[in-house]
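protien #1 (seq + structre)
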Amino acid sequence: MVATLIWAESGMYGGSARVTMFVQLFLPIAALFIGFVALLALSPASVSHPISTAELVELTALLLVTLVVSALVLRKTLAPLRELRVVMEQREGVSAPGRARVRRDDEVGQVALAYNGLLDRLAAEETRAAGLALTAQERERQRVSRELHDQVGQTLTVALLRLGRVVHSVPGELQEDFEGAQEAVRTALQEVRTVAAQLRPGVLEDLGLAPALTSLATEAAREGTLEVRRDITEVTGATPDQELVAYRIAQEALTNVLRHAQAGSVRVTLRSEPIESASGGVQLVVEVSDDGVGVHGPAGTGRTGMTERAALVGGQLSIGPARADDQRPGTLVRFCVPVTTGDREESAS
């Protein structure tokens, strides 16, 4: 009957019996009690009534040995369960690297496998939901861009044309005011067009990431406040979402340099690198580095947005000093994401 119970608990998995925690706990404790029974049966030891001091010492020693051996067996058998609990508690998110190690084929191993499978399914669902969110966000950007260009832009254009027709026919004391209004409308129209272009990077859709980053660097250079250097190489194998995130991160990083870095120069880099891991592969790398005052204070919406975007496509973002200089350490924004292939071509600039 006991053998039947053990066999039923072991079960059959994949054509071979699996040693369960029940068996691992039951067999050592059963062997311990069988040994004690055999010891009592084969040895001259006995228990009288009333019990003597020597017999009480013997029974106490046997009880202590039983408890110690049982505790050691339980501790060793349940240790992987404690390790699995620690792994679960320390996990920061379903997309975080690493999974629970499966070193046993008992219930703990099966729980670890099920936990890893759950993480994989949740990570896949998170990636799918993130992709949908990114697509919805870009569609909304495109809608706003079209409305700015087609509605606000056209309205400002009409106002500019009307001001141009009447600016020379107004009395002299009002002409300066009309010319100022005309210049203000012209500036607003240019800003609307710039914002619309930033919301919808048409060059990225039409030509790809390398020309889009080249155009982005050229626009930053037109500001005239800093030197913009480019080290842009074609990288193949990236998905449209990965290219879009890389472009947005570079765009945000350049905007931060122009507004806050007080830098004299900035470098925009696009290249492919081999992934230093057992699995190998190639990753797309985008870097924006400057020689400004560096990053100070808590992360703002810009840095938070870049980090969230990188996570949406399974990439990694790091922001830190660009060089070892206490006065002007600069800032290095580095985004990398695995791609299917990573053939390098001649530099675009």
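ok now protien #2
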Amino acid sequence: MIAIDTTGEHPIPANSIVVAADGSDHAGRAVHWAAEQAFLERRPLSVVTTVHAPDVPTSAWIGPGAVHPFNPQQLLEGARALAQEAADLALHLHPGLDVSGVARVGDPRQVLVEISRNAHLVVMGSRGRGVFRSKVLGSVSAAVSRDAGCPVVVCRPQGGAGEAQRGILVGADGTPESLPVIEFAFHQASLMDLPLTAVHAVWDSVGAVHGPVMVSPRESGLDEYRVLLGESVAGISSKFPEVPVDLRLARGMAEDCLSDTTSLWNLIVVGRHPVDSLLRLVTGSVATTVVERSQTTVAVVPQADPAAEG
């Protein structure tokens, strides 16, 4: 029996893999992915279940005239059962895995973002509502991937049934700040024994007219971008000589280039600018757009903060 903490007295182990579970099929998909990742990385796995209580005083939950049929303790008991179920599933997939559970009352966005400050990785499911409905209803996965202090993996519903998957795709913008994103992608490719494709998006008149399209390796006039892309991965590639790497240019907006063929990939890796950066205000939608459009699993990796490094 796995002990499920509902008091907050036992913090989640630092640098563990955290997976959000709510009893849905989407969360089950995330538990499968997280359990495999914890096994590959030999890290502890923490299952987190949250229940969002109505914004009413505790006194309104109990006694005569209660406005809600449950009290906080009942909510936590339900969350505890869900966490137990998810933890049992992880152990079934990988017996011997170091698994713990946490149940909390609170907004899942706030709870998971706070937990992410000391986590190695946060893994979540996604219902695949699409961009418009996510903006209307609010997407927990989009909110957490936008503000988390560590990489966030969003396990989207898989599209393109029967199509052969090509490995891992990572977006490379050619900046020093994107190196953590590139290294994360290489590390995943090494763990999963998959090839890696690094793509740099070039925005020009052709991309504006024809939309996202891969550039032929034989096309001339783009040497400066090819050099930039090569330099982006050179130092990290040498650390992972076992990973086959394909460097490609694409025309179009970065979010379109990374979203156009998502069902063909096992994993998409995209960077996210620091929360308070100017670039975040300008390009902050790239990661969120890729998450919401994707038909495969997406990892959103925080880029380095140049201000902090300076």
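The longest strand covers residues 45-51.
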